[in-house]
Predict the structure.
Amino acid sequence: MSCGERLAQELRRKGYRVTAQRTILLETMAHKGGHLNVQEVFQEARERLPGLNLATVYRTVESLRDAGLIDWYALGSEPMQFALRDHENPHGHLVCRQCGVVFDLDLALVNTFKQSVIDATGFHIDDSHLTLQGLCEACSVSDSSHAEKVS
């Protein structure tokens, strides 16, 4: 079964119609891989679907998120980024607020924290869209050495 057929089957299973736009956007995301923004997907997908417009891409991305096929995250003032959801390897994101690099976060690392939050507050964290911001190792080292020089 091809990538497109598998994704179309998943859409149907979740009760969504399989449209040309949804199919092409899903295939585009699958083949590009990684974390993309709407503009990147739009530019790539319109080569295969010339009548495609940006508003349709935004609506389609939202419906694919609602269907649980993609995850997205915000990086400050940067455009919203998203990627196909990997049901076999769920993950969150670590985003460096200085250089913008994005790392995948194994959700097993946050399970203790999740349970602590439940125990303390009764609040259940939705880790299907977990994004933590901070400084990557390189920026942290750079930030520390800059602070030492200023002191």
